[in-house]
């Protein structure tokens, strides 16, 4: 199985190639210039593996949630590659990828649920909870909510302890009262984790045609309009 994965969801840009159980990745922390960086990174990982785009089985990309601009860049770029090579695409949750990367970086967390969290701005976060046994599926529905509401839901949920947190969304002060043993604000999303999460999804028939690929924003249009009105007052 050969899968090329891309991510520009947050403050990083990464490309990874999964081939026969091996992964090579290009990763850089960059708030801007994602569009300029992606193609050379794709060329590099393909060259390292001695493969061409046409030899891939599929592409994979973060479907969101995340930055509007970041998601559109990664998805549009992936669609272009998929159209050019006539390959399907596997959409992967950016929060699931964040949790998988944190579990890889913190082996001591390997058996515990991880609460992945991205800053949604407007004093809200995108979040989900991921167990090692079901890394693609959040134990509660992925959501965008105020930090206070997240803390409340974590306290009300019947979840095994300890819990751990990962991602830049944890910076809000109310999370000081969250029922987690520890959290890592610096956990980024890596394309290598998207590639690995894409493999079981591919095997379960979750790949889509390039033209059917859509981002998941979670925050609906009505909410965006209300927030824009508030900010303009």
TrEMBL record:
The Gcp-like domain sits at 30-151
Its annotated compartments are: Cytoplasm
InterPro entries linked to this entry: ATPase_NBD, Gcp-like_dom, T6A_TsaB
Give the GO terms filed under biological process for this record.
tRNA threonylcarbamoyladenosine modification
Q: Which Pfam families match?
A: TsaD
Keyword terms of this UniProt record = Cytoplasm, tRNA processing
What's one GO-annotated cellular component? Answer: cytosol
UniProt signal peptide: none
Q: Cross-referenced CDD domains, in alphabetical order?
A: ASKHA_NBD_TsaB
Cytoplasm as a keyword of this entry, yes or no, is yes
Q: NCBIfam families annotated for this entry?
A: T6A_YeaZ (TIGR03725)
Q: What family classification does the UniProt entry report for this protein? A: Belongs to the KAE1 / TsaD family. TsaB subfamily.
Q: What is this protein called?
A: tRNA threonylcarbamoyladenosine biosynthesis protein TsaB
What species does this protein belong to? Microbulbifer marinus
Q: What is the lineage of its organism?
A: Bacteria, Pseudomonadati, Pseudomonadota, Gammaproteobacteria, Cellvibrionales
């Amino acid at each position: 199985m050969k899968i090329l994965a891309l991510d520009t969801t947050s403050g990083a840009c990464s490309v990874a190639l999964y081939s026969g159980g091996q992964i090579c990745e290009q990763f850089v922390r960059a708030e801007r210039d994602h569009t300029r960086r992606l193609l050379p990174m794709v060329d590099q990982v393909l060259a390292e593996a001695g493969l061409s785009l046409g030899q891939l089985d599929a592409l994979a990309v973060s479907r969101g949630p995340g930055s509007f601009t970041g998601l559109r860049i990664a998805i549009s770029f992936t669609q272009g590659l998929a159209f050019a090579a006539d390959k399907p695409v596997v959409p992967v949750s950016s929060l699931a990828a964040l949790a998988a990367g944190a579990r890889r970086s913190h082996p001591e967390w390997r058996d515990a649920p991880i609460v992945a969290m991205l800053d949604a701005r407007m004093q809200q976060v995108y979040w989900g909870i991921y167990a090692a046994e079901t890394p693609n599926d959040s134990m509660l529905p992925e959501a965008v909510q105020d930090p206070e509401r997240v803390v409340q839901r974590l306290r009300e949920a019947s979840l095994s302890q300890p819990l751990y947190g990962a991602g830049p969304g944890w910076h809000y002060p109310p999370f000081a009262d969250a029922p987690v043993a520890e959290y890592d604000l610096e956990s980024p999303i890596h394309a290598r984790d998207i590639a690995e999460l894409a493999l079981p999804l591919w095997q379960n028939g979750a790949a889509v045609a390039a033209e059917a690929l859509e981002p998941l924003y979670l925050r609906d249009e009505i909410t965006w309009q209300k927030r824009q009105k508030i900010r303009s007052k």
